[in-house]
Amino acid sequence: MRQRIAVVGAGPAGLAFARVLHRHGRPVSVLERDPARDARPPGGTLDLHEGMGQLALDKAGLLAGFQALSRPEGQAMRILDVDGTVLRDWRPRPDDLANPEIDRGQLRDLLLGSLDVQWGSGVTEVVPGTRDGVLVRFADGRQETFDLVVGADGAWSRVRPAVSSATPRYTGITMVETSLDDVDTRHPDLARLIGDGSLAVYGVSRALVAQRNSGGHVKVYAQFRAPLDWHAGLDWDDAAAVRSRLLAMFEGWAAPVLDLLRQGAAFVQRPLHVLPVSHTWAHVPGVTLLGDAAHLMPPLGVGANLAMLEGAELAEAVATAPGPAELDEAVRAFEERMWARAGRWAKITAAGLERLVSPDPADALAFFDELQPS
Ligand SMILES: Cc1cc2nc3c(=O)[nH]c(=O)nc-3n(C[C@H](O)[C@H](O)[C@H](O)COP(=O)(O)OP(=O)(O)OC[C@H]3O[C@@H](n4cnc5c(N)ncnc54)[C@H](O)[C@@H]3O)c2cc1C
């Protein structure tokens, strides 16, 4: 009898899992809380690494589609001092396809293809070990059972409690995101400052990062050390008030750099949370986790890559399992591989975040030089 498989979450992890299973002719229920594909803005740009996100797309048969959409020139990276001096100006060779950028929305649509997603299916609870399998409860009161439930539902996973009591903790570092549209025509000076890829400015315990997306869209991230309630009393709908609070935090930085904040129309805060480094759990038959649900780590260009690779690898392992015993063994072996790899990256990204938003900005520059020698 065919195994009943569900994945909770249609982010990079869940979609890569579903797409690779689909390619192997195995049915999977994709359960997503969002009511529709475009229910919320898809977010910024992602660089997909050759041996990670790109490998996952290859396993899904989508590498050519990615190459047609992605922006190799977006790998460019410029670093400025807070006074505006250019400290590093790294540009990729024209044939460098190691880490091209792609808009999250484009990646989501590529992965979705003709997949049948059950939108508006917010999962509230997963109960393993019932007589009929793993029970999934939905916010609208429905319930359904499966042989395998894969939790790919991100940082605040509702599947995770079925296998682990771990919860994300605040890192002490917050990002506030804003964006600029039509930067080449409306803000040509900023367009030149940013270049083709990313711009970063590192100061004392704070940083400003701007990343070019496709179509002249730029996302700007102000990053700083602050308590979780640093914004008490601030009205997020009052963009002028948020802007002036941020400008005060970055006081003394060069005017062109501060224009990145001055020109931003709306602001969204993203306090950075992480799961414990090397998060593992005692294997629970019928339930597993992928991506941020399993190993939420600082956003240093790895999370989506790992999420997709794990999704693709688990799908391949599961697709070739002929029966329930083999399925469980495949999941168990996958978890061991995932934990070892994710644990290594969790350590690297935790140390990296400390260095990029550091009391000593020279440490951020040294970190960049270690990653991008020459
Ligand atoms: C600002 C920022 C920049 C980043 N840049 C990069 C980068 O350049 N490169 C990189 O590799 N990573 C990057 N990351 C990290 C990356 O975004 C995540 O690691 C990645 O999205 C994780 O994918 P995921 O599928 O595990 O989870 P998510 O992307 O969080 O997807 C989870 C999905 O599950 C759904 N869901 C949630 N709860 C439920 C529920 N109860 N029921 C049903 N569905 C549910 C959500 O709606 C969502 O669709 C960045 C992160 C941030 C915050």
TrEMBL record:
Name of this protein: Flavin-dependent monooxygenase
Organism field: Nonomuraea thailandensis
Catalytic activities: a tetracycline + NADPH + O2 + H(+) = an 11a-hydroxytetracycline + NADP(+) + H2O
Main location: cytoplasm
Comment text on domains: Consists of an N-terminal FAD-binding domain with a Rossman fold and a C-terminal substrate-binding domain.
Residues that coordinate or bind FAD: 47, 104, 292
Family the UniProt entry places it in: Belongs to the aromatic-ring hydroxylase family. TetX subfamily.
PANTHER family, alphabetized: FAD DEPENDENT OXIDOREDUCTASE DOMAIN-CONTAINING PROTEIN (PTHR46972:SF1), MONOOXYGENASE ASQM-RELATED (PTHR46972)
EC class: oxidoreductase
Compartments (UniProt record): Cytoplasm
GO CC terms in record: cytoplasm
Domain named FAD-binding: residues: 5-185
Organism classification: Bacteria, Bacillati, Actinomycetota, Actinomycetes, Streptosporangiales
Gene3D superfamilies on file: FAD/NAD(P)-binding domain
E.C. number: 1.14.13.-
GO biological process: response to antibiotic
Superkingdom of origin organism: Bacteria
Keywords, in A-Z order: Cytoplasm, FAD, Flavoprotein, Monooxygenase, NADP, Nucleotide-binding, Oxidoreductase
Subunit structure: Monomer.
GO MF term list: FAD binding; monooxygenase activity
Cofactor(s) needed by this chain: FAD
Functional summary from the UniProt entry: An FAD-requiring monooxygenase active on some tetracycline antibiotic derivatives, which leads to their inactivation. Hydroxylates carbon 11a of tetracycline and some analogs.
Positions with a binding annotation for NADPH: 40
